[in-house]
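wait is this the right file?? whatever heres the structure
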């Protein structure tokens, strides 16, 4: 390899714009620690509240934002479609159905058991979606997320019917509403599991990139395409299941950030991963801060803010795809 090519590949990962992005994210994270109705400075229990709620909540924002954004990028690579992510393929609805079934069958089940049920259901639903894409030839990339949202709507309707029949509709609504109000010390710790997902995605970035070129290309270079697809599905299901149980539904997070990064930097997965992680953290933190201050002293669910931003971004991407076509 020529000597001039080595520093260029390193600079694509660690550049001054990336450092500026890190500073901006750190500023948002710091602001998140001190935004809220409770006065942590003058109240005698302020320090206790700070360590019991503010720090866990901010850590949860960082972990959930980075994991869901990176899972959206991996799903887009594996499906070769920019419009898919866990909330447009029904993965979140499957995780919710798994959580509901565990709550029905084992009402006293601990948080870890509920999480396992959500992860298994999310894995099954994501695999069914991938199998559907392999079996059916779709004429447009726009049809893929539409089919995914239709499947998710069917699964969501089944969950609603089951919850309504068993008087658990209110509990399901609370569980599925994306909000960080319940993320506190002693409850948020399972979110550290998604850090494993982030690390594995960084390690396997090159393999996911090759798999995104198609099964024939991946097989021709000696890569086990089905194994990579299985690993990617497991990572997506694990992150989605954990985040759904602890936080709830975070719509369009994995759609907005990877597409914005790709528009700005191209489709190099490995060099885009730090930007996607930072973008996911920045977006979810900014939306959460806005959710806390827009209607003080009450708090708006962060999923509402994300849905508003994400729906506009989704429509803009669809219109851009139509103009290019």
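ok assuming it is, sequence goes like this
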């Amino acid at each position: 390899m020529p000597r001039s090519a080595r520093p260029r590949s390193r600079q694509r990962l660690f550049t001054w714009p990336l450092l500026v992005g890190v500073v901006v994210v750190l500023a948002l994270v710091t602001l998140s620690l001190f935004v809220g109705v409770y006065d942590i400075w003058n109240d005698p229990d302020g320090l206790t509240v700070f360590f019991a709620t503010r720090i866990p909540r901010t850590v949860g924002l960082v972990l959930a934002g980075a994991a869901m954004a990176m899972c959206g990028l991996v799903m887009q690579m594996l499906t070769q479609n920019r419009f898919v992510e866990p909330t447009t393929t029904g993965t979140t609805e499957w995780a919710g159905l798994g959580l509901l079934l565990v709550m029905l069958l084992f009402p006293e089940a601990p948080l870890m058991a509920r999480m396992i049920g959500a992860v298994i259901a999310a894995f099954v639903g994501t695999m069914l979606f991938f199998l559907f894409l392999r079996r059916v030839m779709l004429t447009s990339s726009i049809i893929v997320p539409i089919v995914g949202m239709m499947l998710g709507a069917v699964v969501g309707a089944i969950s609603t019917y089951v919850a309504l029949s068993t008087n658990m509709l209110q509990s399901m609504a609370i569980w599925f509403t994306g909000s960080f109000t319940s993320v506190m010390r002693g409850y948020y710790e399972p979110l550290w599991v998604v850090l494993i997902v982030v690390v594995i995605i960084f390690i396997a970035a090159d393999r996911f990139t090759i798999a995104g070129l198609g099964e024939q290309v991946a097989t021709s270079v000696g890569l086990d395409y089905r194994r990579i697809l299985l690993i990617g599905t497991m990572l997506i299901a694990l992150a989605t299941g954990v985040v759904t149980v602890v936080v709830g539904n975070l719509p369009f997070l994995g759609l907005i950030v990877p597409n914005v990064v790709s528009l700005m930097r191209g489709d190099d997965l490995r060099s885009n991963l730090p930007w996607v992680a930072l973008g996911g953290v920045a977006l979810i933190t900014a939306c959460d801060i806005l959710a806390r201050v827009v209607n003080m002293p009450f708090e708006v669910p962060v999923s509402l803010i994300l849905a508003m931003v994400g729906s506009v971004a989704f429509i803009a991407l669809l219109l851009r795809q139509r103009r290019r076509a």
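The two ends are 38 Å apart (CA to CA). so i think its the right one actually
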